[in-house]
Amino acid sequence: MRIVLDRPRCEGHGLCEEAAPQLMHLDDEGELVLDREQVDGGDAALAQAAARVCPVAALRVE
Amino acid sequence: MSTPALKRVVVVGNGIAGLTAAHTLREAGFDGELTVVGDEPHPAYSRPALSKALLLDGDDLTSHTLPPASHGASELLGVRATGLDPDRRRVTLDDGTALPYDGVVLATGSRARRLSELPDEVTLRGLDDALALRRRLAKRPSVLVVGGGPLGMEIASGCLAAGCPVTLVSQGPPLAVQLGLHLAQIFTAAAREHGLTVVQGGPARIEGRPGDARVTLDDGTVLRAEVLLTAVGDLPNTEWLTGTGLVVNGAVPVDARGLARPGVAAVGDLAAFPTPQGPRRIPLWSSAIDQAKAAARALVHGDDAPPLAFQPYFWTEQFGRTLKAVGQLPAAGEPVYADGEPGGGPALMTWRQEDGSTTAVALDHRIPVPRLRRLTRAPA
Q: Staple partner for B191: which of A21, B47, B182, B196, CB 3.0–4.6 Å?
């Protein structure tokens, strides 16, 4: 599965990073960086958990 | 490992609190029968988006969507819980069903407080409210917003952006109670620059007949508009818990792990959890998520689960400006500038609060929120 970031929507709230710090982080400017885009198994579940706490619908896992 | 006694869990409420609780139960190892009850027909969505992007985004109606649930629960949507029997351990629903449980999560949230029963008075709390308001705004009606808190101001901002003339009625300066005077003045100035008419007065009343409602202030001022919207706080949905002994002062008090009793968790807008200021309801997005995670783990692991470690995180977007805040609000007095300077422009600010805690605020300032959190731990 793949994590897809809708960058214009991202507002840098960082809840996704709290949910899945292994997969993504905010850089010094508060821009989200996906450290991994292809995810499987437990990581896919983690990516879903990150997408689910985003209040601005900026993340999808597909 | 699930506690052996935990075979059936019912989550009552399908907002972000209920949704997060359901997923966290699974992550914590609960593999029994899970049922989620939601009174709205919609899947869970982002409530913060309703008064922000959803009012603005052209034809894009997806800014509130959340990924599909993967908790594998039986989802009963469009169904309302009408009662809870904590002794027999059953939730009753408005379709006559009774759901037995070993563990239950109370997550029925809250609803908009209203000033009248008149149908003219509209509120923005759920997705249907937001979609209905969007449709009305397309005709650029005059709008009267009663309520100078963050929600009222966000809605006023959205209505102005839609091309409507907007008047906002506020008790005292808008946002002052919620954010503190310093930040309130910055946002109110932006609001006026965007064309908002602000009327400050005492408590507003709504009077009249269906189809002919008006807002009346203490000083006799009468205001009318084509759209009359109130944003004057929320009331927890606890009526279905009447007689259970779980409701105190209109909310459900819980311990540091989100439990009201063994096997009974309460999370989100209806729960009052321990804070340094005493038991508080904190009806915010990240609060609901953190509460739900802690309580779901406590249902599965009991006292081995870590207690809630919550630090408030709040954000708003209105009149072209954005604010992110970590720590207690309102922020009283003047800030210390970590970046930027006085004058109301983009800045990174901290306040040392009376209780010794620090509040960090980013105003039109892009910053990783973990860094904002770290600022609250540094001396202000």
A: B196
